[in-house]
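sorry for the late reply, my laptop died twice this morning and i had to redo everyting from scratch. anyway the thing you sent over, i finally got around to it. pasting the sequence first so we're on the same page, its 1000 residues, then the predicted structure underneath. double check i copied it right bc i was rushing
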Amino acid sequence: MTVLLTKLGLAYRKAKVDLYYSTNPSLLDLSNYEDRLATNLTKLKAHLDSTDEAWFQEPEFLGTWCLVPKQIITPIKNSSEVQGLIFASSEAEWDTIVDAGTKPTAEFRLMAKCSIDFHVLSALWMIEVGSIFDKKLSKNVYGSRLRRNRHEKINTWALGSFKPYLRPFREWRDGGIHAMSSALENKKKVLALTADISSFYHELTPNFMLDTNFHTIAGITLNEAQTKLNRIFINSLLAWAKNTPLEKGLPVGLPASAVVANAALIRLDQFIEQQVVPLYYGRYVDDIMLVMENTNEVKTTEQFWEWVFNRDGGKELLKQKDRSILFEPEYLKGCRIAFDNSKNKLFVLSGTTGLAMANAISEQINKRASEWRSLPDLPDSPESVATDLLKATSLTGEQADTLRKTDALTLHRAGFALNLRDYEAFERDLPPEEWQAHRHAFFAAAIEHILTPIKFFELSQYLPRIVRMAVACEDFEHLGRIIKAINNLAVKISTSCEFTIKGLDREKEISLGDISRCWSSLLEALTDNIASAFPAKLSSTGKIAWGTFDYELKKGHYGSHQLTLALNRWISTSTNIQKIQAILFSRDLAHIPLRFMGLPTEMVSQRGIPARKSLLKFQLDGLLPDEMLDGHDMLAGWMKLQQNFPPGLAFATRPFNLNELYLVAPQPFLASNLKAFAAVIKALRGFDFTDHKMPYQDKKSVLHIPNGEPKYKQTIAVTSWEIKDLSFNAAIIRLPDPEGRLRYQRINRLINEVISRPDGASYLILPELALPPQWFMRIADKLKRRGISLITGVEYLHAPKKIVRHQVWASLIHDGLGFPSLMLYRQDKQKPAFHEEQELYRLAGLNMRPAQEQQWCTPPIISHGDFRFAVMICSELTNIRYRADLRGKVDALFVPEWNPDTDTFNSLVESAALDIHAYIIQCNNRRFGDSRIRAPYKERWKRDILRVKGGNHDYCITGEIDVLALRQFQSSYRSPNSEFKPVPDGFNEEMSFERRVQPK
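ok and here's the structure:
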C-alpha cells in the first residue's frame, strides 16, 4: 500500500476540523503538530507504506486518555429527610449532602486523548474504508453520516468528515413524531418505542470490523490496500483500549468511532426493516425510535418484546436478561450491547388523547426551535441576569421536546446553552464597555450557580466558553474569581467525594494518578482558551487588570490545588501569551477566525486580530492537490497577502462563507470572474457548481440571482426603525455608539418579531444607515433560515484619505449550490445629499465618494429569481434621469431613507409609482415616518398598500405586491381598463423583454 502525501494532507484538513468542533479540542496540540506538518505527515506516510505495523501500537502514536465530569451521585437524594427540601444556596445544599455521613460519588466519563497522528489516520480511514461501511447503512440511520457530494461520493475537499448534525437530528426526531400523528389521525392505534444502548462506545469492541463474515453481512468487499488500512486502524483502536482502565471499548472523542459504532448495528437495522416492518424506524447512532401500528393490542412492554422476539430471526439476535434487551449477533461476541429497560420507553397511543400527546411534543419542538432561531435578547437590567440563569438551569415549567428527552440533565444543558449563546453574541457584536454590567452579573451568577459540584458536573463542557468570554473582554478580575471558584470546587470534590469511572467494574480501584487526569484535562481547556481568546493588543485598563491577575495568581491568592498551581506555572507575561495567540490565529485556531482579517474593519471586532507582520507564513507544496492550492492562491491575492500565506487559510476551521466571499472578491458577478470565484469556493469548502447556477451580471448589467421557482406575489416587510443622531455622529467620528447596547437589543427584538411572523415575508427592508456593518451578517443569517432576504442601509464605511462610502447591503437568498445560501450585494450612493455632505465635513472633515468599481450612471437592476427590482438611497430618488432609466425595467424600487422632508418625497413617491409604473417600497427613519409600499393602482384608495408613521416603539408591517398582475397589465399593447393606471407614454417601447408575460 502506498499513500499519497496529498491524501494525508486532505485527511489532516478534515481531522483538524473534526477535532476543533469536538467537545475537547486540543488547540495547542494541533498547533504544535502543524508547526512541523510536512515532516509529521511524511513520517506517517512512511509508517503506512511500511510492512511493519508495530508503530501503530506504540503509546507515541496511540496517545492517552483523560477523564471528564459526568455526574455527582448523592446518597441522600431520595431520602425521606430531604424530600420537599429546596435550598436557595448551592453551598448550603452541598454542606447538607456532605454532612449526611455517606460520601457522594463523583462519576467521570473516560475520553480519548489520541495523538494528532491517530486523528489523521482516523480521517484517512473514514475516507478510504469507513465510507464503504457508511454507504451500506440504511437511509433510516441518521446520526454521524459521512459528508458526500451530490453524486453520493465522499467529498474529500469538504471540511470535516461528517454531515452537519442538526438537520439529520431534526429529520430523525420529527420523522417519528410525524409518523405517530399521521397514524393517529387515520384512526390507527399506535405503539412508539424509544430506546438507547447503555455505555455503547465503552462496551463495543471493534474487532468485528476485521471479520470477513461481518463484511459479508454488510455486503462489502475490501481490496488489498483497504484491507491493510482497515487492519492498521482497527488494531490501533484495540491497542488504545487495552491501555485504559476499562480495557475495552471505542475511543470516545475519536471521530471514526462513530462510523464503527454505526456499522456494528447494521444487522439490527436489517432485522427491524425486514421483519418488524414498522410505520417508522429511525436510528441516531445508538438512539432508536420506532413507530408501528398496534394491531395485536399490545398493552405492556413485555408483550411488545415478546412479539418482536417471535419475528423471524428475532430470538437469535435479541435476548432478554436482567431487565435489559441484549443485541447479540454472531459478529459481536464478547460485547454487551444492551438496551437498558430503565431507558426504554413504550408509548401506547390511540384516539384523541394520543394525538394530543403527539401535538404537545410538536409544540415543544417548535418552541425550542424558535428559541434557537431568534437573535440574543439579554434582560434590560443587570439585576435580572442571575434570575434568568437560574431559570435556564432549573426544571421548573420545562417540558421534553422529543420522545427520548425526559431527563433533567438534557434540559439543564439546553437551557444553559441558550443563555450562554446570547452572551457570546454580545461579545462578538459589541465593544466590551457597552455591556459590562450585564457581563459581570453573568460571571457572578455563573460562579454562584454553575461552579458548584453538582451543577459543574452537569455543565462542565461550557466552562471553557465562559473563560474565553472573560479573557476576550479583558475581564481579568472576573477570570481570577472564576479560577478561585474552580480551585475551591476541585478541593471540595477531592476531599468530599468517592470516585468512579462510568463503565468500570466495581472491583477495580481508581488511583490518584487516574483522578489527576480530570484536572489535567480541565487545565488544558483553561490554557487553550486563555491563549486563543487573549486580545492581540491590551487596552490600558486591560494591562492593569492582567498585571493584577498575574500577581494574585503568583501569590497563591486563588488557591493551592494542583490545578491552580499548574495554571500558575503556565501563565507568563501578556506578551508571551499574545505570541501564542498570534500563532493560533495564523492557524485558524484562535477565538477570532483567521478570515476576519480579510473582511472590512467595520464588519468585525479587531480586538483579537494580530498585526499582519506577526502572522506565520507556510509552505504548502506537496501537501494538498495543485487545484486546491490554486484556489487558495487566488484567495490570498484577494486578501492582499504575500506568498506563503498563513496555514489557517488552507487548513481552515472556519473559512469564508459565500456571503463573505462576495465582500472579499473583486467584482464577483462579472462573467469573466466566475471561474476564479468557483475555484476559491471549491478550494475552501469543496462545493462544486456550474456557472449558470451562480449569480452573474449580464451584458445589460442586470444582476441575475437564481432563487428557485418564480413567485408571482411577494410579501415585503417594511420596518419602522429609529436611528438617532447620536448613533449617526458616532459612526462618522468612529467612536463607540452611546446607544450601542440598547440599539442592539432593539434591533434583535425587531428581527425576532419578523422571524416569528407566520405570513412568510420574502424581503425585509430597513432605512438608510440603519445598521453597523458588524451586525449585518448575523441578522442576515437568521432571516435566511426563514427564507427572508434583507435590504438595509449600513453605517458609513471609512476609506483612506478622509473618504467614506455610503452603501446599501442586500443579503439575497439563492440556491445556486443546491441549498439555500446567501449572496451579499452592495450598492454605493453616488453623491451625498446636501445636508449629509455638510454634516460629514462639519463633524470629521470627510467626503463621501463611491469606490471605483461601485460607480454607475444607470441604476443597477437585480433579477432575484424572477423578481426584478432596483435600489436607490434616499436623495437618489430625486434624480429624474435615474427614474427614467428604470421605466419598464423593474417590478419594484426599494428606497431606504433618512429623510425629514416627507412632504417633498410624498410627491416623488406618488409620481414614481406612476411614471416608472412599479411598486415603490420606501422605508424611512421612524423619527420622520412615511414608510410605505406604493402601487400604480387605478383606484386611489388602493395605491398605498401600507403606510406607517410615528409611534414610540420599533415595529414592522408586511404588505403583498402582485408582480404577475402588474406584468400582465403592462404586457398589453394598449393598457386595459382594469386595476392599474395606464402605463405612461413610451412605456411599451422601453419595457424589457424578460418582464413580458401573456396578458390577461
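The chain has 37 helices and 27 strands.
thats about all i looked at so far, will dig more tmrw
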